[in-house]
Write a structure and sequence with these properties.
This protein is α/β, with parallel strands linked by helices. It has 8 helices and 18 strands. Strand 1, helix 1 and strand 2 form a beta-alpha-beta unit. It binds one RNA strand of 73 nucleotides through helix 4 and strand 10.
RNA sequence: UGACCCGUGGUGUAAUUGGCAACACAACUGAUUUUGGUUCAGUAGAGUCCAGGUUCGAGCCCUGGCGGGUCAA
């Protein structure tokens, strides 16, 4: 009998996943991971890990499977939280959940599972696996979840073949309502529990408070860039020699607009953000067009159609490009069409990837709103996630 | 100094040439979301610069201040 360790979180998804694994005849063990103890910045109504652990334990009992707890908080802090602070400090917008999967769930948690002699680790992610044989070698595919609304393949975009080979996603072929239904039918204590939100293990926090633990408040200017200032920039033809102009954030300068307010520190803001600017009196809302942490300035524009919010492409440096399908990796000077997503739950967009020595340029057919450095771009071939990388 | 204009919630504007103040943005709360993105819904917030006056009743009319602006020299 094959042994599976399921990461039981205290939510419905992993509970149902555990149930299904058992149904399928696996030898299932539940492992609850503690990744964060602190309560700094935590929303007081949000529950603590102790509550989650208790409920997870109840689920395990109900399913009659062994239950254990591992404390991975040291690694989580080092590999996810520190990364988060570092990125924010550098003026980027990190995606801790992608890192959490690559560094924690499918790395050290996987190791813990292997120590328990597991053949696989399972999670409650909404995504699926497939297989292909290339040159006599089995290759694992990462596929979108059946529930298009919940698809979480994006969060796993940084996994490699090794990690994928050990992964199971028991609920990937189901839709959320079906998962809830199964939980109810089985009388699982998590059946009606609210879905988790916020940074995966830290939980729902007040981010400004959370970030201010390490990042200081640092007042600076908010500069409004008029829409018409963007006109010239929008005339750049889409061609190879303009890749650099098209694929990097607009290099706004203080004299491109006028000062209209003050902010708390450029590193607290992200492109596309609307809330938290504290500047009113406009006909349409203001959105962040760009941030400059070295000058400590944020640039904003009025209206959701502001041209400064849209860009044609993005760049991923060679070091940051990751191919789940190594066999499909582009060679230098090759290019290929893919469907690309630049943020979780964003629709896939048609684009062309151009591999050059320095990295990959991704040019979209349509201009994209809010391309933000630090987020991950993930490219798909239909349902299959082929590769990903950090947006420069 | 003379003439003219303006002074309304945090901000920008609106209010049949008199009947107790509307809209947008911001803020807050909630929904959605395993990223504070976005989006969506809801809540609160001024009694209209000050002092008098006319009127049954004034943000809207009159007088005088104060404050800001424009044009004049």
């Amino acid at each position: 009998m094959q042994k599976v360790v399921i990461g039981l979180s205290g939510g419905v998804d992993s509970s149902v996943a555990a149930f299904l694994l058992k149904e399928q005849g696996y030898d299932v063990t539940a492992l609850f991971m503690v990744n964060w103890h602190e309560r700094v910045g935590a929303i007081t109504s949000a529950c603590t890990w102790e509550e989650d652990a208790l409920i997870a334990k109840m689920v395990a009992k109900k399913l009659d499977i062994p239950f254990q707890i591992v404390d991975l908080s040291k690694d989580y802090k080092k590999r996810v939280v520190d990364y988060m602070f570092k990125e924010y400090k550098a003026g980027r917008t990190p995606n801790p959940d992608v890192l959490c999967n690559r560094e924690i769930k499918f790395d050290i948690f996987l190791d813990e599972a292997l120590k328990l002699n597991a053949d696989f680790v399972a999670t409650g992610h909404y995504c699926q696996k497939g297989e292909a044989v290339v040159n006599g070698k089995t290759i694992h595919k990462l596929l979108a979840g059946k529930d298009k609304n919940k698809d979480q393949s994006y969060f796993l975009c940084q996994l490699n073949q090794e990690q994928l080979s050990k992964a199971l996603f028991p609920i990937g072929h189901l839709e959320k309502p079906e998962v809830r239904k199964i939980a109810r039918e089985q009388n699982l204590p998590t059946a009606e529990r609210k879905d988790s939100q916020g940074i995966c293990f830290v939980g729902k926090v007040d981010l400004p408070t959370f970030l201010q633990q390490q990042l200081e408040r640092k007042p600076g200017n908010v500069i409004e860039v008029p829409a018409k200032f963007m006109e010239k920039k929008k005339q750049v033809p889409i061609s190879e020699e303009n890749f650099k102009k098209l694929c990097f954030s607009y290099p706004f300068k203080p004299w491109n607009g006028k000062v209209i307010g003050e902010h708390e520190g450029a590193h607290f803001y992200t492109i596309g953000q609307r809330k938290g600017l504290n500047i009113g009196g406009y006909k349409e809302p203001l959105f962040v067009l760009g941030t400059d942490v070295s000058r400590n300035i944020i640039y904003v524009g009025e209206g959701k159609q502001h041209p400064g919010l849209y860009r044609r492409g993005l760049f991923i440096s060679s070091n940051d490009a990751h191919w789940i399908r190594e066999d499909q990796m582009l060679k230098t000077n090759e290019n290929r069409r893919f469907d690309v997503r630049i943020r979780y739950r964003q629709p896939l967009e048609k684009a062309s990837l151009y591999q050059r020595d320095e990295g990959i340029y991704i040019l979209f057919d349509q201009e994209q709103r809010g391309i933000t450095s630090g987020q991950f771009a993930a490219w798909y071939d239909g349902e299959e996630l082929i590769g990903s990388g950090v947006i420069a």
